[in-house]
Write a structure and sequence with these properties.
It is built from 7 helices and no strands. The protein is an all-alpha fold and about 160 residues long.
Length: about 160
C-alpha cells in the first residue's frame, strides 16, 4: 500500500486544525507508530481511518496538555536578555560608591550619623528629630544640605 498520499491527507487535516507543519509531521509519525503497535495484536480493517483518528486524537491530547502546562516555546524563538550590568556600568558604580564613601567620611560625625540613619537604616526625619529633640524641618534640612554640599557625588563633582 502507498502510504504517502494518506500521510499527506492526515497532515493536511492537522494543519487545517491549526497545527504547524512540523507539529503535524510529528503527530502523523506518532499515529503511524500507534497503528503499527495496534496491528501487532489484531488486524486493522481500515488503516487509513485508524491513522486519521489516531492523529486527530493525539492533536487533541497535545492541545489539552499545552493548555494545562502552558505554551511550549521553541528556543530559537526566544530572545535571551542578559540582566547583568556591563563592565562600564560596574566600573561607574564602583567609582560612584568610592566618591560617596569619601564624601560621607568627610562629614561631621553628627551629620554622618543622620545621613546614614536616614539613607541606610531607613529612619524617617521625624524619628531622627525625636531622638535629638529637634524639629522635623531642621533635622531634615540641615544634614541633607550639608551632605549635598560636601559630598557632591550625584553630579560627579569633586568632594570639597
Amino acid at each position: 500500500m502507498n502510504w504517502r498520499p494518506v500521510f499527506a491527507k492526515v497532515k493536511a487535516a492537522l494543519m487545517r486544525r491549526g497545527r504547524s507543519e512540523h507539529d503535524a509531521e510529528d503527530l502523523v509519525q506518532e499515529a503511524w507508530v500507534r497503528l503499527a503497535q495496534y496491528e501487532q495484536g489484531q488486524p486493522v480493517v481500515q488503516p487509513e481511518a485508524f491513522l486519521m483518528r489516531a492523529a486527530l486524537n493525539l492533536s487533541i491530547d497535545t492541545h489539552r496538555q499545552s493548555q494545562s502546562r502552558g505554551t511550549e516555546v521553541v528556543l530559537e524563538d526566544v530572545v535571551l536578555i542578559d540582566a547583568t550590568p556591563s563592565a562600564e556600568a560596574t566600573l561607574l558604580a564602583r567609582e560612584r560608591l568610592e566618591r560617596l564613601s569619601i564624601g560621607v567620611g568627610r562629614l561631621p560625625e553628627r551629620t554622618r550619623a543622620f545621613f546614614l540613619a536616614h539613607r541606610v537604616e531607613g529612619k524617617s526625619y521625624t524619628e531622627l528629630a525625636s531622638t535629638v529633640c529637634r524639629s522635623r524641618r531642621s533635622s531634615g534640612t540641615s544634614p541633607r544640605q550639608r551632605c549635598d554640599w560636601r559630598v557632591g557625588w550625584k553630579a560627579g563633582e569633586q568632594a570639597r
